[in-house]
Amino acid sequence: MSRAYLGIGTNMGDRLNNLNDAIEHIKQFENTEITKISKVYETRPWGYTNQNDFLNLCVSIDTNLKPEELLQKCLEVELNLKRERIIRWGPRTIDIDILIYDDIICNGEKLTLPHPRIQERAFVLIPLMDLKEDLIIKGMLLKEWLNELDAEEVKEYIGDE
Questions:
Q1: Which of 36, 62, 135, 144 would bridge with 140, disulfide CB 3.0–4.6 Å?
Q2: Catalytic residue among 53, 92, 102, 160
Q3: Is the pTM of this model over 0.90?
C-alpha cells in the first residue's frame, strides 16, 4: 500500500458538515483506509480574498489506488458535494488536494506531486504536522517551511460562536 496525504478545505454552507461528508466519501474509496485525521483549522482565504473564511484539515491514507486514480476519486467527491470551479482560489463547498503520495515527484498535466504550492500554505502545513511532524517536503521539514510563513491567521477551529 502507498501512503498519501490529502488536504481538504471548505468555505461555503455548513463547513464542518462539508468536511465530514468528504471524509465519509473518502472512507468509501476501494482499497483505501484513512489512517489519521488532523484537527480542523479556520483560516482566512488565500489567493482570492473576497470570500468567507475556510475550514481546513488533512488526512493520511493508505491506498492501493494509483495517484491518477486517487485524483479522479477526489474530483468525483468534489462533484458529489456540489463543487463549482468559477473563480481560481474562489469559494467552494469542498476542495480535496493530493498533497503528497509516497515519495513520488511528478509534474503531469493533471497532477503535480508533491502539491506545487504546499510550502506556501500554512493552512496545509499546520494540519500536516498533526499527522506526521517529521514529514519532509522538497528537502525540508514541515516546521522549517512553516518558519518561512506567517501562520498567525491559522487558528484551531473550536466551533461557531
A1: 144
A2: 92
A3: yes
